[in-house]
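W.,

You were right to be curious about this one. When I first looked at the sequence I had no strong expectations either way, so I just let the prediction run and decided to look at it fresh. Below is the sequence, 488 residues in total, followed by the output.
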Amino acid sequence: MCARRNDGIEGFIAARNQDLHHDAYLLTASQQRSEQLVAVVLAELSRGRVDLAQAASTARQRMARAVAQLDETTPSDLSDLPARFRPVAALTTRQRAILTMRLVDHQDQRCTARSLDLSTSDIKQSYAAIPAELVDRTTPTDLRQLLGDFGDLAEFPDTATTLAAMRAVPPPPHRPWWTYAAATLVIALAVTSLWASQARHTDRLRNAVVLNQIHGSHFPAYTQGYQLIDIREVQPGHTATMSLGAQDAVVIECATGQADQTVVARLSSRATGEFDTSCSTAGSQQHLAPVDGQTHLAIDDFSRKEWPVAIYRHLTWDEYPVAHMDFIVQDDRTLASARPADATGHPIPPVTAGKVLTLRGAGGHVNGSFTAALRKPAGRGNTVPVLSALLSPTTTGQFKLLVDRRAPEATTACGTLDPPVYGQQRTGICSIVDRQVPQVDYQDWGTLNSDARTMTIEFTVTHALGPWTLQLVYDTYRTHAYGAVTPD
């Protein structure tokens, strides 16, 4: 049993090592203290009887509780940080823990107090002391992004280093014998109540919504319809052979400090042929490489002795624990945010603004096929028509947009600008399964039929449980010599 337990915690660390150090740095604003915090909390998890399926959220909550109890300020020199991060670093550890619980875990004031083992008055007092420039002058989405970017400042030790640090944490001191006797007495007196509570807990874990709440909000690949089934260690320079199914995909972790799109491995399978695969994450999403049958994987990066390779399996809509209640809906964006922007994020004014078309699903008509005609404004020399669209759903569901029977070229794919699986063809289908419901952007330009003044919009919705709104507009933009949109 102990060996299997150790294998489980090691696999968990291999899969979530960067996330753990990211969250710890966000909470402590210190590289050294974040590494110590991760080691201590992982040691607690490895010695306790924690369900590894919930370990990620449990670890973050324990780290947040630990720093919230200390309520310390950051001792480091803030002048070394980029200016936009200094307000976050200047907060106390308790204030950062509160923001993490409220913005990352989406907990209300009462749940935050319970998670951090503080009174609601403590939460109110600490939150009220956060500078207005953070909580009043930024949107929750922008502040959440700022916190995530701040955590990215962490240096991520490799898995072996994290494991070694965890094992070096000394065990807690033994308690006097009478404390165990008292605990035994309490357990004996409460055995009937505990049995009933455990039965209710087991029933909850069989509930798809509860499983989604446990995993979906904190496990990017899980929210993309994939389930982790195995983690394998592969040595660089050696070709590993794996027999995998047609619904499987693999993820290779990034090297510490490397940016997205850094090539670390070569992968060959019946599904893909041979190609170079990049790091595992872009933003908050996993990059999954599809595989099928006998798969050959060769790691080309020798910065580590072994690389963890995660194996995922795609689940059908019926198999996946799709959320059906308690939705956290992102509804703070407008169609303007889906329109082209320059390198600084500012919107580019169109030469000619088109008329906005709005489709809605409401009442008893939220699922089905919805069609409409969208007109393009008249173009002129050195301009290009650009389709911009924003979907604002309120529940889980599957949404498919076709423009003249073709999926738009650029889609946020429920949260990422890239397809979640390498080699995946865009079908226009956006599957939202988690209780966190994002708004979805669509954009298309350049390849549109320039001769047609009217485009047929086909929007198909299935499994939606509540209203949604889709706004679309064609604008014309000036282009430079290479055909890209320019603000000039």
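Here's what jumped out at me. The longest strand covers residues 383-393. And, maybe more interesting for your project: The chain has three domains: 2-168, 226-314, 328-478.

Coffee later to discuss?

I.
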